[in-house]
Design brief:
Distance between the termini: 72 Å
Largest sheet: none
Strand content: under 5%
Structural class: mainly alpha
Low-confidence stretches: 1-12
Helix content: over 70%
Radius of gyration: 20 Å
Order of helices and strands: HHHHHHHHHHHH
Number of helices: 12
């Protein structure tokens, strides 16, 4: 055995992409759906900086999943150095975005960030314990990331009622989706699962968005989109569904999320 061969065997190949970027399609949807809606509905001088800040915070989570357990365990693995490098890069993006955001956005724009700070800490804690794929961390992650739409709206001059309604709308889309995907994947794997919680969550989301629309805080078009998602959940969890792989289900949810954000934006601009 040559020295070069021995090195290849003893030194595992570390994928930089897997350390730097989340692999779950849903995670990217949690980031981009509220950001896209906020950018299109409430553009301002602070928009770029807020997007940079939120994106930097989002990207930091992936390398920290590797870095924190390694540090706590006193380990120096082949992944540790790249994880540290990407953590520093993404933390720098967050810091620059935060400085720009504070320079251009009114101070009340950051109320949602203060509100979700404990959830962000819980996310880091869950990642360190390798529990990030459990239900509660996924739900708190959705709550935290969806707050960005309200930050953008407040920075863009929206009144607090309308701005926080956007957050509620995003949660009405994301939380039922999380419950649906988890139940759907269990069904596809032949595992026993409860279909009532995701369907009930969709019904509650529909009622909530319809109530917001009644008080003029949500477009009617969005109510129709949430109703469609309810129908999707009923069909997708029924015996009539077609078998699907996890990747297809994830991509499908990203598409549905994009359509929901589009319905929200068009509904506001067209007044429907």
């Amino acid at each position: 055995m040559t020295k070069e061969t021995a090195i290849r065997i003893t030194k595992p190949n570390v994928s930089a992409k897997s350390i730097a970027l989340p692999v779950e399609h849903g995670a990217w949807g949690f980031l981009f759906e509220p950001l896209a809606a906020g950018i299109l509905l409430a553009p301002s001088a602070a928009t770029f900086w807020i997007v940079l800040m939120v994106t930097g915070a989002f990207l930091m989570r992936q390398p920290l999943k590797f870095l924190i357990p390694d540090w706590l365990g006193g380990k120096n693995l082949p992944r540790t150095a790249p994880a540290l490098k990407y953590s520093v890069i993404f933390a720098s993006l967050f810091a620059v975005g935060a400085i720009g955001s504070f320079a251009f956005a009114p101070i009340e724009s950051f109320i949602p960030i203060l509100a979700i700070a404990p959830l962000a800490i819980y996310q880091i804690y869950s990642d360190a314990l390798r529990k990030s794929r459990q239900l509660l961390p996924e739900l708190t992650g959705a709550v935290a990331l969806s707050s960005s739409v309200t930050v953008l709206a407040l920075a863009g001059g929206w009144n607090p009622s309308a701005a926080f309604s956007l957050w509620a709308i995003m949660l009405a889309r994301l939380i039922p989706s999380i419950l649906y995907v988890r139940s759907r994947l269990r069904l596809e794997k032949g595992k026993e699962t409860r279909i009532l919680p995701p369907i009930a969550a969709h019904i509650l989301a529909l009622i909530s968005v319809a109530a917001l629309a009644y008080f003029g805080l949500s477009p009617i078009l969005l109510v129709l989109m949430i109703a469609f998602l309810l129908g999707r959940s009923v069909y997708g969890l029924s015996s009539l569904r077609k078998p699907a792989k996890a990747k297809f289900i994830g991509i499908q949810e990203v598409i549905f999320g994009s359509l929901t954000a589009l319905a929200l934006v068009l509904g506001y601009y067209l007044g429907i």
